[in-house]
Amino acid sequence: MNSLDWVVLIGYFGVMIAIGLWSHKRVDNVSDFFTAGGKMPWWLSGISHHMSGYSAVMFTGYAGIAYQYGVTSFVTWSLPIAIGIGIGAKLFAPRLNRLRSRLHVASPLEYLKTRYNIQTQQALAWSGLLLKIVDVGAKWAAIATLLSVFTGITLTQGIFITGIITAVYCTVGGLWADALTELGQFVIQLFAGVAMLVTAMSKLDGFSTLWTVWDKLPEGHTDPTAGPYTVTFLLAYLFIKTFEYNGGMWNQAQRYMATDSAASATRSARLSAILWLVWPTVLFFPMWCAPLLVHAEKPDASDSYALMTEQLLPHGLLGLVVVGFFSHTMAMCSSDANAIAAVFTRDIAPVFSKAARNWSARAGLLAARLSTLGFLGLSMALATQINSPTFKDIISVVIKWVAGLMGPIAIPFMLGLLRRFRKSGPTAALVSWAAGLLAFYFTNYNFDGSTKTNVALQYQVALPLAISLVLFIVIGFIKPEDTPERDAVIEQINTDGDGPGIGATVPAQAAGPGDVTGSEAADSNAKGVNEVKD
Q: b/e per residue, 100-123, with b = 16+ CB within 10 A?
């Protein structure tokens, strides 16, 4: 990188901070900070939902898969995500929106206290929080790896720089800052992606490369599934991503909650699904052509895209593409930070602190911002250790750990929204959650902690979710735990039409250890609505 590239990069960082500072005036309370007050336009929510699903792993780990195996990188990654989001557009998006509009909550998990009990809420909240620290740490490491390739700075320095910039804008402006910066990042990476596409084609056969390159690629590069990414893996990944990208990892749920109505949430999801179907092909095409343009130095070819960028692009455009790397990762990490802060301040802290249950609007907003900073700090610290033997490498963390552990956390949260699973109560939720986590461990590790090498990747990531799903359903039939209070909550979430609705609502803050039932639920519900309105 030369001075022109640095100007582009520093300018990008400056714009992100400026957007965050401008968004500050839109944030008056925790509802604004976590759900944009339900005022986000559906198109902005859709673009934000799309952008918050990317990271620099796209340009490292998945670039390596594209280099080694070809089009399977699209078929077994972005295609199932697009299909999964399309499925969730009617199944999950409107119901998640009603969590805010009908139940008056600011965190995706707040409703679990009444839908199940406090123990279930806390189990899902704590396990999801710890998983997200690992997940975001992997993404910080990915972007820092790319930064080190282009600038020569160390991994730790790269993590510190990107983390501090992200912390400034997402802490000041909340979800509004996340969404608006993601819109800007979408525009930037649109130009960057097209620039790389055009440059790669110009080095081969020009525009005709789109149809002439396929016979020149290494053998098997046009196969839809290849290597460890089999048809079974594809089906397992579709199964997993349908839950994950429809709210199972919480940050996507916030995008649906932030729109003004259930119908807008559905439109938002459909836009995101279309973007996932179309845009990754533009990004992947140069990666598929990479074996004809560069020679990857790393065994997993995760450096192929960075090498191609460095060798093919002129200065200025090089800086733009590097900015594109940052845009994806910062979008995902900032959205995760906001979601985790919501869960901590709205679901975890009130259970352990009486003061947290009585925060004023100002104190609650301050706690939200401090929680955001705390999460970012922990994930950055972990990122410096991401290549240690414990975590192996970046792509294994993202694919194996996140995909494998997401399911047991997402099943009670997502299926708890649906009428069909109303009989599945706290026992089904906790047993399915615990069994799924144990299944992940014993699928991937031996009793002594050593890694298993004889289990296919698709089983490592899909088996925990499958076990959780089966147990959640079966236990619901064997030991039904539906109650009038729980049924009332489910009806609120599933009733057609928009608006605040009537009936049971979820307390704005957890009241502390123990279940809330009967008259206690009604009292705390009324209090919760007033707190949110205040």
A: bbbbbbbbbbbbbbbbbbbbbbbb
Per-residue DSSP letter, 314: P
Residue 328: the pLDDT is 67
Higher pLDDT, 68 or 402: 68
Query: How far is it, in rounded angstroms, from Cα 132 to Cα 379?
Result: 8
CA–CA–CA angle 225, 229, 233 (5° rounding): 105
Q: Can you count the helices (H) and strands (E) in the chain?
A: 25, 0
Tokens 């590239």 sit on residue: 5
CA 484, CA 442: separation in Å to the nearest integer? 38
Kindly tell me if the per-residue pLDDT of 461 is higher than 80: no
Question: Which one-letter amino acid corresponds to residue 329?
Answer: T
pLDDT at residue 513 in the model? 45
Residue 150 CA to residue 59 CA, distance in Å, equals 13
pLDDT band at 507, cuts 50/70/90? very low
Three-state SS at 451: strand
- The DSSP secondary-structure symbol of 78 reads I
| pTM, 2 dp | 0.83
Q: How far is residue 461's CA from residue 467's CA, in Å, rounded to a whole number? A: 11
Using the CB atoms, write b or e for 364-373: b if 16+ within 10 Å: bbebbbebbe
Distance CA 97, CA 124 (A): 20
Q: So what's the pLDDT on residue 389? A: 56
Task: State the DSSP code for 449.
Answer: S
Q: Which of 243-252, 289-298, 515-524 has the lowest mean pLDDT?
A: 515-524
- Tell me what pLDDT residue 511 has: 47
Distances in whole angstroms, Cα of residue 497 to Cα of each of 94, 255, 485, 522: 10, 19, 21, 24
229-to-203, 204, 291, 298, 314 alpha-carbon distances in Å: 29, 28, 19, 20, 35
pLDDT of residue 337: 85
Q: Which residue has the tokens 């780990």?
A: 61
Q: Locate tokens 């490592």: which residue? A: 460
**Residue written as tokens 């008259």?**
519
Q: Which residue has the higher pLDDT, 533 or 369?
A: 369
